[in-house]
Structures are given as structure tokens and as C-alpha cells.
Amino acid sequence: MKILIVQDHLRSGGTERQSILLTRAFAAAGHEATLLTFRPGGALAPTLDSVRHRALQPVDLHLDWFAPGLAHAVRTAAPDIVLCMGRMANCHAGGLQKKSPALAVIATMRTGKPLPRLFRRSLQQVRHIIANSHDAAAVLASQHDVAPAKITVIHNSLVFSPTGPPDHKTGLRAQLGATDATLVLLDVAMFRPEKNQRELIEIAAQLPAGLDWQLWLAGDGPERAACERLTAKKNLSQQVKFLGFRADPAPLYSAADLAVHTSLRESLPNFLIEAHAHGLASVAYDVGGVRETGAIAVPARDQAAFLARLQPLLTDPALRARTAAAAQTHAHSHFVPEQQAHAYLDLFARLLQAPAPA
Length: 358
What we know:
This protein has 358 residues and is an alpha/beta fold. It folds into two domains: 174 residues, Glycogen Phosphorylase B (Rossmann fold); 164 residues, Glycogen Phosphorylase B (Rossmann fold, 3-Layer(aba) Sandwich), CATH 3.40.50.2000. Helices cover 39% and strands 17% of the residues. The protein has a seven-stranded parallel beta sheet with strand order 3-2-1-4-5-6-7, with helices on both faces. Strands 10-9-8-11-12-13 form a six-stranded parallel beta sheet, with helices on both faces. α3 packs across α4. It is elongated and about 65 Å long.
């Protein structure tokens, strides 16, 4: 098959990582796979080794929605399948399907945020939709009037699979002032309003006095400065560490003790999947597909409930180990990259065998 994966920009988010992973996996399975982005460059551009890639904008115009010559590029590529990843790509999906009725254009539902009007229109026009969680599929059916037969659920794949056991003696812990006894809480996410790292800082500030802990926040984005100011205001600068964007967060998973996530909008958070696969238990706000990752889910905005589930994991190593082992088993049985890639390819084959809608 000739498969074209469409994404607006290679920023550092989970959907962008999935786009690259799938392009590589489809090619490894013997298919001609190309990643087409609207903008050149991006935080993940250096990870494109061995990936066939083309950008539509000749220079980065910093416009996520601007896809000059998209329809022409699709016609020239003559793919069998067009897989649209991310909000902006999905806004264009319906137009691509309308211009090429015989082409199998597939939209994806990978966000917990409200959908733009063009995205909602695309849902009605495209051949099929892949949701990355059962929660997202339910939203498509209940809020956007999409027929269940038009939806397939395929969970995210692990991007950073563990290569060994957790290593609490890494130089990273010492570098950040954590001893073997320090309890390291980790969150890896872009600093956007909906990711809500602010509440993690507020929750951490309520941990018992005398507990040796650190909170590592990896990622970058517009909310980072506000979170740094909040950290200073609460006199937590020695305990809350801002690690910036990490192209490969695997060493963080290996060095941490527990994953924490207070995001308010999710479809299926890659961070929790990866943390579990690396042997970390997690506590997270119960939004979107968080429960499907195997996390301990508590009501969103309920800091007291979050603390009530978090503190036993911090103070009881045996409980933490049992919870982590269950989460790890779940991750390795549900989010294996090869398994997810085959699910995509099987769906593509079925769609190509079926007659195109009149």
C-alpha cells in the first residue's frame, strides 16, 4: 500500500510522535509510507531519520493551518490511504475526501479538546475515523452523530519502550539533587493550559512536611513561566524541577518513582502509557481515556482525592510496587507498537477491499 500520513507540524506532542512512529512502522512492514507536514522543522524534526518526509511550506511561516498545495501533493503522491493526524490535518480531511471520492481518507480522533467546525465537518465526509480510546469513540457517536460502524478504536502505541529495569542510581537523580531515598514524581507534557501542571504544583505543596520528594516537570510551552512563578511563590524551587523538552524521556521514567498527571483534557495520554510500561504506578485526573491506560483515576479538580490516592503510594513501597506491576502488565498487553501498527494496516486493507461509497 501507499500510505500518506498528514500532520501540520512536528511539535513535541504525543500525536506528532505517533505520526512519526506509524510512518516508520508502516515502512518497516513493506509499505510505501510518507509523512507530509504543513510546516517544516519542529522540535521532533531531528528524529526523522529513515522517515520519508515532505513539508508543504517552503519556509516555516508559523501557520499551523496553512497547507499550500495540499490537494495537489496528495494527487501527485497517489496514495491508497490518507491518514490525517492532529486537529489541523483533520480540518483538511473532509476537503481531501470531497475532491477525491475514490480515495480512502481517514480522520483520527485523538483529542479531548473541543473540535473546530471544519474538523466536525470532516467527520461526516471522510471514509472512516480512528479513535485512540473508547472514550473518544463514545464522544464521536454521542456528540458528533458519527455512526459506530464508521469508527475503529486503535490505542496509541508505545513510543519509548523500556530497555531495562528502573535505575535509581542514574546520574540524573544526583544531578537534580535527589538521593536514593527521594521520592521522585514525574509528569511529561507540554505546558499548555489544559495540561494543568499548575495543580500538580499545588498538590505537591500539600505533601506532608518531612517527606523527601521532588516533582519533575518535563516539557515546554506557554504555561511554563507561570508554573515557575507559582513554584517560587510556594517556596518549592528546591523540590520542583523544570526539565524542559526531552526528545527522549526514557531516562526520566527510569529515574522516577511515580507518575502524576492533572491534565483536564485528554483522549489517551501517551505519557501514562509510557510511564506504566517503564514500571511506574500513576495517579491522574479521570478525563477522557485515562482509565484505559491503567492509571489510578480520581475526579478532575479534586485535589483532596488526588492526595488521598497519592500518599499511600509514596509511603508504602510494597503497594507502589504492586500497583506499578499491574500497570506495566496492562501497558505491555494493550499498547505494543507492532500490534497497533498491524491494527492500522488490517483496517486499511479492509477499507480498500470495500467499495467506495456512492
